[in-house]
Amino acid sequence: MLKMCGIVGYIGYRDSQPILLEGLKKLEYRGYDSAGVAVFTEHGLEIRKTVGRLSNLEARLREQPLRGTVGIGHTRWATHGKPSVANSHPHTDHTFKVSVVHNGIIENYLELKEELMLKGHRFQSETDTEVISHLIAAEYDGDIVRAVRKAVRKMRGAFAIAVLTEYEPDRLVAVRLASPLIIGVGEGEMFVASDIPAILEYTRDVYILNDGEMAAITRDGVELMTIEGNPIAKEKFHVDWDLMTAEKAGFEHFMLKEIHEQPRAYRDTMRGRIAADGRDVVFPDLGLTPERLREIRRVHIVACGTALHAGMVGKHVIERLTRIPTETDYASEYRYRSPIITPDTLVIVVSQSGETADTLAALREAKRQGARVLAITNVIGSSVAREADDVIITQAGPEIAVASTKAYTTQLIAFYLLGLYWAKALGTLPDEEIARTLAAMQALPEQAERILAQGDDIKALAESIARHQSLFFIGRGLDFAVALEGSLKLKEISYIHSEAYAAGELKHGTLALIEEGVPVIALMTQEELYEKTLSNVKEAKARGARVIGIVSEGLDAEAAKSVDRMFVVPRTLPLLAPALSVVPLQLIAYYAAVTLGHDVDKPRNLAKSVTVE
Ligand code: M6R
User: Residue 597: its pLDDT value, please?
Assistant: First the structure.
C-alpha cells in the first residue's frame, strides 16, 4: 500500500485529542480516505481509526474519547488497495506496545514482514507501515530511540514517521527520510507534523528535519540527531504567516478564496523584485547572477500538472525574451527519456508544494548529470527548495484547495521576472521594453481585480456548460498553454470531460467530435494569432459548436461577430495575457463544480501533494 498522508503528534500538558484532530483538519488536503489517532491514556496505548473523511473520526472520538497528553494522528490517501480500518494508521505491533504513523513507502517491507513472521509476528493489515511498528518492537531493548534507529536502518524507501510507545510514553520519536516532517516547539509542549499549518495555532517556532534526521521529543525539549545517532545542532525557523491566511476567510471554498487572493499574490511575488525606478528586475538573493545566466545555453523546465502548465508559459517567456532554446517536460517522463543535460543547461523545476515526488526525482537526476537547478516553488524549506541550487519563492501563501490557482499565476509572475532579469543580462531586450513590461506587470493585480468583480457573469457562463458531457478549449501559442490549464482545472473539480487543443490542430482529427451544441472555449488574447484562431472558431461553429470566447479587450469587437458568448479580459501585453485569461477559466471550473454539487476543495481521487511517484 502506497500512501501520501498527513502526520501530527503532540506531547505536552494538554489533552492531546483536540490538538491532534485540529492538526489533522489542517492536513486533510494531504489525504482524506481514512484517519486515526493513538493516545497514551490511563489504560495504556489506545487507538481509534475510521474510514472516510475526518468527520467520521471526530464522531467516533465524541462517542469514545481518548484522554491523555501524548498522542499521534494520521490522515491517509491510498494509491493502491481499499481504504479500510485495518489499513488506516496508527499501526501497532502484535503486542500493542509500539504505534506508528507514516507517510511514504517502505520498499522492502515484504522482505521484512517475512522475516518477522518467521519470528512469530502476526500482522493485521496489508500495509508497509504495520511492518515498521513490528520492526521497532522487535528491536526494543529499553531505549525507544535506539530501537527506532535500528529499525530505520533496515528499511529502504522514502518516509516520515512518528512513533509513540507504551514502553516510554514520555517521548515521541520522529524520523525523516525524503518525506517532509517538522517539529514544533512550545512551552512545556512539543509537536510533530508533516506540514506547518497543522501546528500553527500552537507555535510558530519549528525545526525542519532534513533527510536522514530524527528527533527524540519530550515535553520540555527535543534532541535532534542523524539516523546514525550523531547529535545535530539546528536553527529554529520562525513562521510568520498568520493562521487566517490558511483559513477560508469568509469564502465558501478555499479554491474561491485562493482565486480571489491572486491580485495580492501577484503583488507579493513582485514585491522587492522590481527596482525603485521600475526599470529593472532585482533578485537580491538569487545565486543565479547575470554572469552565470550568460553561461546558460539551454533550458529544461520540468514539473507536473498545473505547475507544468505554468512552465509551458515560461518556455514562451524565456524563448521570446532571451532566445535561449527551452524545452518543457513532465517530471514523470524526464528521467526516463535520457534527457540531454550539459553543464550549460539550466533545469527549472516548478512546484507549488516543493514536495512532488516526480519533480524531486527529476531535480535529483538533473543535478546528478551536472545541471544547475533553479526551483520556482511556494514553500520555503520544502525539499525542492532545499535541494535546488537556486530558488525563487512565489509568494502565493499556503494553497489549500487541491486545484491549484494562485500558485499557477504566481509561477507565471516568477517566469516573467526571471525572463526580464535574464534578458537584461544578455542584452536581448531594449531597456525601454523591460521598463514597459514591468509597468504592465504592475497593472496586473488591479486588472485581475476587475475580472474577479465580474464573477456573476462568469458564473452564468459556467452554468451554461455544467450539464455538458464534454467540451473543448482551444487557443494558439500562449493561449494554447492557458487552454491546457483551463481544461485541467475543469476536469479536476467538475469531472466534466474536456480537452485542450492547439486551435490549428483541431481540424486534424478532433473536429470529428464537434457536433450540435458542444461547447468550445476559445482563447483569443494574442493579437498576431487572433485571425488564425478566429478561422478555427468558424470551423468549429460550422459543425454546430457553441463557442465561448475569452478575448482580450481590443479584439472583442471582431470576435463578437463569430462567438456565441464572450468574456473580455483587460488589455495587457500579449506576453502577460495568461496571467489574466486564466482567471475566468479558474472561475468557470469553480462554478461548474459548485453547480454540479461537487466537493470543490477535495475532488475525488486526488490529493494536494503528490509525494509518491
Ligand atoms: O505541488 P506541485 O506544484 O508540484 O504539484 C503539481 C501537481 O500535482 C499539481 O499542480 C496538480 O496538477 C494540481 N492539482 C492541479 O490543480
Answer: 95
